[in-house]
Amino acid sequence: MASERSRNPRWETKFDLRGPISSTLKIELKVSRWVALFRSEELVGTAEVRFEELREKQRQAHEEDNDYVAFDLQVVCSEPSASQPSISLRVHRGSTALNSALDTAQTLVSDARDNIQRIKRGPALPNVSTDASDMAPSAQDTAKALRSAKEVKAVYESTLASVEAFVKIVDALAEIHPYAKAAWAALSAGYKVIAAQKKRDDALAELLESMSTALDFVHRFDKNALHEVDKRIILQVAEKTNECALFVEQYCKPESFALRAAKGILSSDGDEIARFKNDFDLMRKNLDTGAILSLTEGLSEVNEDLYNIGEGVKDIARNVDHTVLMVGRTAQMAIVDKLPYAAGASWDPESGCLSDTREVLLAEIMDWIRGTGASDDAEILCLTGVAGSGKTAIAHTVAQRCHKEGILASSFFFNREFEDRNRPDKLLSTMARDLARYPGICSQLSSTLEADPSLATASLSRQFTSLIAEPCRRYTFDSSTVFVLDALDEVNNPPDVLKIFRDDFPKLPRAFRLFATSRDIPDLDIYLSRSAHIRIRTIVLDAGVNLDDLCTYIHWRFGDVAEKLGLGPSWPGQRLKEVFISKAQGLFQWAVAVFQALECAYDPTAELEALLTGLQTGLSPEAKMDEIYTKILQAYGWNNLGFKRDYDLVMGAILAAKSPLSVSALQTLHPGIPNISKLLSRLGALLTGWRYPSQHVQILHLSLRDFLTARASDSAPFYIREKDHGRRLGLLCLTLLNENLKPDTPGAEYLESGSPGIPAVSKDQISEELRYACEFWTAHVLEFEAPAPPELLELLRTFLSARLVLWLEVCASVSTLKGFQRVKIWIQSVFPENIGLLNEDFNTRLSIALISISERLAYMDRREEALLAIQEAVELLRLFEGEPTSFKRNLASSLYDLSTRLSDVGRREDALAASRESVDLRRRLAKDRPAEFNCDLAMSLNNLSNRLSELGQREDALTAIREAVDLYRPLAQDRPPTFNPDLARSLNNLSAHLSELGQREDALAAIREAVDLRRQLAQDCPAAFNPGLAMSLNNLSNHLSELGQREDALAAIREAVDLRWQLAQDRPAAFNPGLAKSLTNLSNRLSDLGQREDALAAIQEAVDLYRPLAQDRPAAFNSNLTMSLNNFSVCLSDLGQREGALAAIREAVDLRRQLARDRPAASNPGLAMFLNNFSVCLSDLGQQEGALAAIREAVDLRRQLAQDHPAAFNPVFADSLYNLSLRLSALDHQEEALAAAKEAVEVYRPLAKEIPAVFKSDLVDALRLLSDLLRDLGQEDDAVATEQETDALNSPGAPGDA
């Protein structure tokens, strides 16, 4: 590359070219330009010259006794050009003798052997115990060994040094050199792959050790070894060494080196290791015993080490194969297991169809599952039928059969009685966890969730795309793959699920089948009936097959009941059996209800006679179910007032509960019932789960719920007023909270502690009933309407005064923060005369608690919950706007926090509005009492400047931060210890805003002042102020770099890194993020000075720091990780490691894309930047189509951003348009390229006019590109006019030159 631009650029680099005389030197002439953070190269042409001609020139220099001979090479241009460039070469006479290289052999080989000895001391893979009890610790040890990145890196670099030494020694032998050089290049490529893949297993060290041993024969090399036979032997060794190096490279290609060795190599018929051994044996036989070069010892070592490789790899096959998989699989599952999972939602073998029943229907379903669909899409079959027709049993059986065939992906049985199973929230996350049994999908899911944990609770559409569709599309399914879903009608909001089935399910591979059941609800017709990939099948009750199946079931159940109750094999007789069958009329659930009653009856025969007597005929299925429920219920002793009272309480609680309660929880909530288990046993004909205290009690069937709460007469003794019992549960929950929620409750009282964040409390740490009360008391209480009972008022009074803050704390610890605003509004509506419930003291306490919880949630990066808390705090504090100054101060402070929380979730306009309101409030306060409130006003102005800058309002942002600095200066002058830190912080921000407007010298002056202030503060109190000093040094480095003061910039960032490194040693959790940030900037500064290897090492360390941070707190640090990966890609590209650069930027794009799905406003700007750079990397590797697709996506994103916020995003929008034009031009889409270039120029023009120091050079580049494209398309006049505009911008005195 030329050092400066010129019409006659000069390269001063010297090259020592060696190779066979038949070799050819090829020179490529390229033009280089920088686009964004990447250098883009365009090929001008090539020139070639044979080594034979170069040797002739060298001889000519000897004969003429000149130091060199110069001659010109004509460049063959890749595109037609008016000018014909040429390249001038100087061929020096050369004086390096063969023996001079040989003289250094002993020294070089000694160094190589020392390197090998260090390799042999490298780490070893831990053995895997066969004892199950030792498996977990062994897996942990293996995981540690596999993560030993620095050790393996040292091993590899040492081995590369050995190969390089060999290259130097045989350098004089021109015929040998290409093989050795190729071996070095292959090993180097393998190292790059391994470094990128992070698989640091010690088997690599073992194989590389043997590779180094193969080179140890050089230790025997003597300077007299010049005979042709010796050269031939060395050539053979070099060839084999090259093959061995390629062998290593092949090992490095798979994701796991060890697995490749175990599965790919040893399983091959033509064993590569054996081939190496045989080849070296043959060379040894051909070696003349009198040869000066002795290979005997070296080759024997090679044979021994290659044998050891074989044995070692076999050990790998035994140990690593399952250990590495186990560790990796365990780590992946640990991430996937964070997805919510609906307990009890899977299929149950005990709940399926009776043997030999439903066979025709089941065969039809299974044939559809196994068959090839009529379309290329995944397909859905929905089985519908009335309540009680046996749909659920069929679903269980289908799931069981698919499971036996190995084709069941997941099953989910909805149930209105269970919170986890009556909402769609956990449907897709449960399905995803079930899919994780496929290793490839597990790996994809873990990567996706690691990058974006918010998917665990995201919308159904986002979850389906990221957790189901995308992983499945990347996996190959050899046979049908089935989802089974039952009772879609029991989902709280069926359309949410049905839309996914209609719109998104076809995105799955065609092997997928979804079998679902549902009652025939209107939503099915609305959402599913008109889709080609969906079939709907209905159970016909009076169909012969259905009647035969029910008859079989009835006979079996009679035998089952008779056996359980000891009634004899012929019970209850043929007559009653026939009557039973005729009365059932095809309804399976009717039969189930009768048999359940018989099992709980004192006299089963009499009970059966009573239930079958007086039944009507010709009823609808629903009316028939109501009839049998009525007969069962009428048999209870309703004249017993105690039984009637307790029935109403317990059955009401079961039906009104928001989530099923266990027997023990029901007992705790109803202490007035002496033995709730006894009562439940009497109601056993109607319930399930009542036999064991810890089981959740549920009603027998959904049709029973509908009957008891809606269709039964309200005068019937068994009628349940569900709403009344929901309210009663609200009173019980409040009573429970008032009595049991105490300061020592797990998850309470942490607001009083000094530790940050929120403690995690498992659900097992608090009782079921207390957990239920915390979760659902608000839902129950909100069902009350005015006039509310006095009891509720007293319970609320106690709760609000003594338990409210504890409740907020526990909710945030156990699950999610529950907002109080709805309850507050409800209290004002229901108890208007008792406004004292929400008095000033209450509002103050609650607002303080919410502010503190918001800060802690923000620390935990639970951004939406943090925003909810501060929003509610602000609404409370607004009530005091007419109150004393202290309340206004609190409101202004909370608005300041609200602005930050809104910005955190990407709501920039709302954040700006909150910040403006905070400034206005504090300005009014400061007007009357400046000495007291100017510092608060300055703080809000600082925040306002940041919010304005985020929206591209740079001039206003600068005005705000200048005012903040002006306010802080007199404060700092009067009280420097108190306000110098604030002044330094504002100067730091002032420098940033000045830089954004191109006022770089002023920006540098401001950051220097900030550094000086913080350096003084740090001298007095380093622990408190070194972090701030490091941050300002970081920014000083950036500003020095902008002004071309690169050495000073490097010195500043080195000091920042040193400070942050020391801080991170003591408190890594607190300061590793800052260290990673400074390392990123250090990498940039090193790269600016051409120290590319050091730059790569620095950014690699930054990436390594960010990865564990992002793993622990992904929402907080995934964004930083993506940025560091972007810079890592740049450094790799600078060193020519283009594949590694592409891998890094691809990872950055994938991570940022996942972030953008959840928070597009906050993440789309970064995604667009990465796509821009992704396009450049693809283009560098010749993947022009992919490069074009990436830059198109970047342009689309930035176009929308620029439309919404032109001041903030027009610069990057223009940048992407420029790159789009380049990509289009590279694919000969000249017309489109011209349009993109024109648009880029139009966007740059006003920017360059407004801030010429920043944007004039960009406009010039865009104009040059436009001129070239115009000329290519024959528009010469326009091209000339564009060039004239370019020349005018570049002329002395043009705006921006100063």
UniProtKB/TrEMBL annotation:
Annotated signal sequence range: none
Pfam families to which the protein is assigned, alphabetical: ANAPC5, NPHP3_N, TPR_10
Keyword set, alphabetical order: Repeat
Repeat among keywords: yes
UniProt entry tagged with the keyword Repeat: yes
Domain Nephrocystin 3-like N-terminal: 364-519
SMART domains in alphabetical order: TPR
Region of interest (Disordered), ranges: 1277-1298
Residues of the Anaphase-promoting complex subunit domain: 844-878
Domain of life, per lineage: Eukaryota
Compositional bias annotation for Acidic residues: 1277-1286
InterPro entries: Apc5_dom, NPHP3-like_N, P-loop_NTPase, TPR-like_helical_dom_sf, TPR_rpt
PANTHER family: FUNGAL LIPASE-LIKE DOMAIN-CONTAINING PROTEIN, KINESIN LIGHT CHAIN
Record-given protein name: C2 domain-containing protein
Source organism (scientific name): Botryobasidium botryosum (strain FD-172 SS1)
